[in-house]
């Protein structure tokens, strides 16, 4: 094992669910079941579009070739909805694979035949055997986590069945990497700075995650940006998992269904998204549009466009065109989304060896150019090739950035550009970039340009 790994995190290291928490879980489940009971009536009485509102693909109730008791996602819902103590006490271990695509009980990418098979028999001795050697995800996590400051590292709670390698106090496994990947993208693209600036201006930010899985990304972001009103909009069948996991692991926060919680988490059934009022600073969709029909993607795109106003939409989805089948749509969501947003910033991974991202291709969409480049977040601009990258000066229309031994003046309105892979990191590209060996060097180049501009006849 690597020197950094200090043993394993096993089930014995997870505290058990208390009776009080178990009763809370029952209450959460009761609320979700009543929401599902009234879904048809709600859709009918509000004259909503059923094709958009009802679960499709993996979560669809309408697959005549396959009875419901053979469909893993609905089976999962039925299992958790029974609120059995042993199931809730291992909630993360059981539901994780359905959302992150990876089974911690088998230590592999999940396939349909593995869903819900062996969690009941999993023991610490079996897990110790499986975890004898750290896997690639563990090493990927080390590389990824080391690229961000400590406060941006996701540390999953040792509760409800979290297991893995203990690296510097963090329970590391595929899922820990998977969520860290998203945090790195947020950090490096400047989204966290963008949110912090808005918190400084308005005291709070509003975040909406569409398709929140079991809630881990929501929890991680809430820790980094506590002054946030965090909404999860999802199929009620999945909201059961996120509302349970978050209520139990984030008892420090307020939790509401449908009606917003100002500083806490709100769980909103997907078909009620039309009822949302006001603007959101950030809308997130990660590996979720890729589970939806084209009609659902288009409807969400229209809604998100209105909801963000001057905010941003972070979207990361896989290209499913080669794996479409009876349960999965074969499309590439970003090709549909791009029809709805005039501005797009493609995000690159700054960890050089990790070109393939587990969550797919990340993009930031907006209704107008949004300058997310600030200070430390410049690292992404250079494709992770450089050691020292930071903002040293705000010079009118330009940001001046130190890149190892050079200085670069970047036109602010360009937003994010990958100088490294564009090959423009080596030479001036007026009026967009000026490269120099000192700050004064680039400032004088920028000034010369401005002087020339001023001499032009108006
Ligand atoms: C593969 S999981 C990804 C979950 C989470 N984003 C993550 O990265 O762990 C897909 C998510 O999309 C949600 N989803 C599927 N259809 C949806 C719909 N029509 N509206 C909202 N969410 C939906 C699922 O319930 C699930 O939470």
Number of domain modules: 2
The molecules bound to the chains, other than polymers, are:
S-adenosylmethionine
How much of the sequence is in beta strands?
A: 15-25%
Structural class: alpha/beta
Number of helices: 16
CATH architecture of the largest domain: 3-Layer(aba) Sandwich
- Largest sheet: number of strands, sense, barrel closure: 8 strands, mixed
The whole-angstrom Rg is 23 Å
Say how many strands there are. 17
Instruction: Specify the CATH class of the largest domain.
Output: Alpha Beta
Ends distance: 69 Å
Q: What's the CATH superfamily of the largest domain, by name? A: Vaccinia Virus protein VP39
**What general form does the structure show?**
globular
Uncertain segments = 374-387, 416-425, 452-458
Mean pLDDT: 85
Helical fraction: 25-40%
Strand order in space, largest sheet: 8-9-7-6-10-11-13-12
CATH topology of the largest domain: Rossmann fold
Topology:
Layout: E1 5-9, H1 19-37, H2 39-45, H3 50-53, H4 72-81, H5 85-88, H6 91-100, E2 102-103, E3 108-109, H7 124-130, H8 136-145, E4 164-167, E5 170-172, H9 174-189, H10 191-202, E6 205-210, H11 216-224, E7 228-234, H12 236-249, E8 255-257, E9 265-269, E10 282-286, H13 294-308, E11 312-317, H14 333-337, E12 343-346, E13 361-366, E14 389-395, E15 398-403, E16 406-411, H15 419-422, E17 433-436, H16 439-455
Parallel strand pairs: 6-7, 6-10, 7-9, 8-9, 10-11
Antiparallel strand pairs: 1-4, 2-3, 4-5, 11-13, 12-13, 14-15, 15-16, 16-17
Helix pairs in contact: 1-12, 4-12, 8-9
Bound molecules: S-adenosylmethionine.
